Amino acid sequence: MKSLPHLFENNRRWAEGLRAENPAFFEELSHQQAPGYLWIGCSDSRVPATQLVGLAPGEMFVHRNVANVVVHTDLNCLSVVQYAVEVLGVRHIIVCGHYGCGGVQAALRGTRLGLIDNWLRHVQDVIQRHAPLLEGIADEARRSDRLCELNVIEQVFNVGQTTVVESAWARGQELTLHGWVYSLENGLLRDLRLTASSTRELYDGYRAAIQPER
Ligand code: CO
Is 42 a catalytic residue? Predict the structure, then answer.
C-alpha cells in the first residue's frame, strides 16, 4: 500500500492502542452494535462528532451533512433515522450545529458556491422563516451565531416530525431529541434547551426556543 501511508500508520497505532486497553475490543464489537445515541451534525472537519463527546466506537450512530440539515425528502438522512430508531433502538437523537458554520454563513450572505447552493437553500428557508428576528440583531457575527442556533432548532423540529419519530412516540418508545451547538473557538457544546420526548414537548420546546433573545 503506497498511497497515504501516514493514515495507515495512524490507523495501525489507533487499533493497537484500543487493543492494549482491551485485547478483545474489536472482537466483541464485531458481533453487534448497540449505540445509545444518533448524532446528526455538520460535515465540518473541525467538529469530530464521536471524539468531542468522548465516546468509543460502537456508542454513537452518526449522520453528517453540510449544515446539519434534516429534509423530509432526503432518503439518506431518513434512512439513518429509521435504522437508528427502529433497528438499533437509540434512546437519544442529537442534532448538533456549530458556530462559524460555512454552510450557514454562505446561506446568510447568499454566497455562490456551486451545486451546494441548492442544499443550502434549506438554510435560507430558515432565514426566511425567522427574518424579523434575525434582522433585529445588529451585530453580524451575533446574527450568524443566532442563525446557527435557529438552524439546529428547525432541524430538531424536522426530526420530530418525521414519520419515524412520530411513530416511535405513538407506540411509547423511549426517544428524546436534543438540539446542541458546538463552539469551534473553545471546543465546548451548548444545549439549546430544545429537548423533547413527545410531540407535545417538541411543540412547546420549539415555541420557547425561537423567542427573540432575552
Ligand atoms: Co458547518
Answer: yes
Same domain, 8 and 42: no
In a domain, 100, yes or no: yes
User: Does 214 reside within a domain?
Assistant: no
For 37-46, write each residue's pLDDT tens digit. 999 999 999 9
101 part of the active site? yes
Question: How far does residue 21's CA lie from ligand 1's centre (Å)?
Answer: 34
Any idea which residue has 426517544 for its cell? 175
Task: Give CA separation, 4 vs 10, 13, 87, in Å.
Answer: 10, 15, 36
Please tell me the distance between residue 46's alpha carbon and the centre of ligand 1 in angstroms: 9
pLDDT tens for residues 7-18? 999 999 999 999
pTM reported for the whole predicted model? 0.96
Instruction: Find the domain containing 110 and state its range.
Output: 33-209
